[in-house]
Each structure stands twice: as structure tokens, then as C-alpha cells.
Specification:
Shape: flat
Number of helices: 3
Number of strands: 2
Structural class: mainly alpha
Order of helices and strands: HHHEE
Helix content: 55-70%
Largest sheet: 2 strands, antiparallel
């Protein structure tokens, strides 16, 4: 079964590259794919874990950008970004 899954994963990555899509390179994701290939976890578990990874990235981006975005605007004028003079 692992050879069939390995070929399926390779084909999926190849099709994505040929379509110009980026391939997830996070080490955890690649480990989960390898675990799926070996039959240790199901694809539904890979998807569940990946959604968690994406959510963590969103949380990290939001926590990095929220204070910066708030500091970008002048007091009371949310329509105009601050400019260095």
C-alpha cells in the first residue's frame, strides 16, 4: 500500500507544480504526508493537522500585524496612513 500512496503523493505534487501552484514545504506537513504514505495516519488526519497549522500561521500573522496596523493610522483618522515627513 505504501508504494501506491507514495506514487499518489508524488503525482499530486507534480500536478500542483505543473499548474503553477506552490507546494507546502513545512517540515510538519511533509512528515504527515510520509506518515500517510506509510499507513500510520489517514488523509483525514493529515487534513485536520494541516488546518491547525494554517490556523496557527493566521494567528501569528494577526498578532504581528495588528499592533503595526494600529500604529500606522493617525489618531482618529482611520482613512489615511501616517506618512514620514
Amino acid at each position: 500500500m505504501s508504494q501506491i500512496r507514495r506514487k499518489a503523493a508524488a503525482n499530486a505534487f507534480l500536478r500542483a507544480r505543473e499548474a503553477g501552484r506552490s507546494i507546502e514545504g513545512h517540515p510538519d506537513f511533509l512528515t504527515w504526508i510520509e506518515q500517510w504514505i506509510e499507513g500510520e495516519i489517514e488523509m483525514s488526519e493529515v487534513a485536520y493537522r494541516y488546518r491547525g497549522l494554517v490556523a496557527q500561521r493566521g494567528d501569528a500573522r494577526q498578532s504581528r500585524t495588528t499592533p503595526l496596523a494600529a500604529a500606522t493610522f493617525q489618531d482618529g483618522d482611520q482613512d489615511q496612513p501616517k506618512r514620514d515627513r
